[in-house]
Amino acid sequence: MAGIIGIYQGNQISLIEKLLPDIAHRGKSGKTLFHNEYCSLGIIWTDAQAPPFHSEENKTIYEDQGGDGRLVKIILSKGNVILSRDFLGIAPLYYGWKDNEFLMFSSEVKPLLKIVPEINELLPGHVLNGKELVYQTRLPQQSVLNDNPNQIAHKLYKILSEVVQKCISIQEIGSLLSGGLDSSAISAIARQHIKTLHTFAAGINSAPDLLYAREVAEFIGSVHHEIVVTQQDLVTILPEVIYHLESFDPLLVRSSVTNYLVACLAAEYVPVVFSGEGGDELFAGYEYLKLVPPENLAEELKDITLCLHNTALQRVDRCASAFGMIAYIPFLHPDVVSFAFSIPPQYKIKNQEEKWVLRCALENELPSRVVHRRKAKFWEGAGVNKILAIYADEEISASEFEKERILPNGWKLHSREEYLYYKIFKDCFGEMNNLDWMGRTKIYSEKTGISEK
């Protein structure tokens, strides 16, 4: 995905040149250095997109957008600077003030860590106008549908198909395929519109994801690629993953290691991939949601959807961008999100089957056992499961963990696995008191369905 590092200060191009290599991995195709009397910018982009930078009417504009609704827009003029971000935060943007005076902004945190004392994430749907932060674009509000389930499933499939087609600007596109319902759905739809669809899977030997992905690939007729990883592969790649991910959140890191490795594989074949991210949040794919009272389910789904920006969406962005790829997320296009939130909750969990209406929509497009496959967490399906947690317990003593589990900012680490990741994070970026920009995945109680940070 495209990337930018900039400062609202003129004649700072030497500083930008020093910082741009920190995000150079985000683009393989083009690079622009630009400065004038009021701003200095470094911009990169990928093979699959047009240069995201232009000037008009005394304004300098950076706009990274895509067919899935992803958007970061920056408008700079002599009198003002405006930063804006899409309503779910598919595209990333961070900012802070150099010398408490000059606004700096970047697609990743890495460059800002060297210059800015306090980093902020531009929250989804927000606009920073000068120094005023405004919540401008909210989740679409829709009335609940009165259609029957078959009609809803048919409309859902139609909208997903339209959105997938909007993302196809070139034919060299692949799809990350875990063999779960969401990635299989997007892959099956994409295959209908792409002459040669490459699909990619990763996992340890005999992992469920690998077996299901092969079955889906054969069924839809894709050119399938897979990478079989070992425990040593997972351990060896951890520093690289955490550096790109910019997080030590344990669930996020655990799900990113195979995502990172499969992205590396995909980049050898295509500049763009589809991701099935977002389906669980929109259609109630998590096991704990069965314990949420039906009258509270819609609000819980909105809440977890709004939490994606600095967790799962950060994983998708960083893993793809580490290899100069674009990752499209059709489930999170505004049209799909709006329609999903208009579907009655009883059609999302029915007879204790999660994502029921989505399964109905894909009934004839995938093998039956894939359509009705139970949800597996990303790391479980890939076979990673407890491998990294066991490794952390071997590397970190209980006494060291207890001594160091409270961080300088007051956060309390939950496990030795999380502390291991924090140590690697600290080696990459140094110790810091302000981590407000970093997300932490919710932890759910399987008994109560109650969530907490």
Strand and helix map with partners:
Elements (H helix, E strand, L loop, with lengths): L2 E5 L5 H7 L10 E6 L4 E6 L7 E4 L2 E7 L5 E6 L4 E5 L8 E5 L3 E5 L3 H4 L6 E2 L4 E4 L2 E4 L13 H19 L5 E4 L4 H11 L6 E7 L3 H13 L2 E7 L1 H15 L4 H17 L5 E3 L4 H5 L10 H13 L5 H10 L4 E3 L5 H7 L15 H6 L6 H4 L6 H4 L5 H9 L2 H7 L11 H14 L13 E2 L6 E2 L1
Parallel strand pairs: 13-14, 13-16, 14-15, 16-17
Antiparallel strand pairs: 1-3, 1-9, 2-3, 4-5, 5-6, 6-7, 7-11, 8-9, 8-10, 11-12, 18-19
Would you summarize the structure shown here?
Helices cover 36% and strands 19% of the residues. With 453 residues, the protein is α+β, with helices and mostly antiparallel strands. Strand 14, helix 5 and strand 15 form a beta-alpha-beta unit.
Keywords:
single chain, 453 residues, alpha+beta, Glutamine Phosphoribosylpyrophosphate, subunit 1, domain 1, Rossmann fold, 2 domains, six-stranded antiparallel beta sheet, 19 strands, globular, disordered C terminus
Describe the fold and architecture:
With 453 residues, the protein is α+β, with helices and mostly antiparallel strands. The chain has 2 domains: 3-135, 4-Layer Sandwich (Glutamine Phosphoribosylpyrophosphate, subunit 1, domain 1); 149-452, HUPs (Rossmann fold, 3-Layer(aba) Sandwich). Helices cover 36% and strands 19% of the residues. It contains 17 helices and 19 strands. The chain has helices at 13-19, 110-113, 149-167, 181-191, 208-220, 231-245, 250-266, 279-283, 294-306, 312-321, 334-340, 356-361, 368-371, 378-381, 387-395, 398-404, 416-429; strands at 3-7, 30-35, 40-45, 53-56, 59-65, 71-76, 81-85, 94-98, 102-106, 120-121, 126-129, 132-135, 173-176, 198-204, 223-229, 272-274, 326-328, 443-444, 451-452. The strands form 4 sheets. Strands 2-3-1-9-8-10 form a 6-stranded antiparallel sheet. The chain has a 6-stranded antiparallel sheet with strand order 4-5-6-7-11-12, with no helix packed on it. A hairpin with a 6-residue loop joins strand 18 and strand 19. It is globular. The model is unreliable at 444-453 (pLDDT under 50).
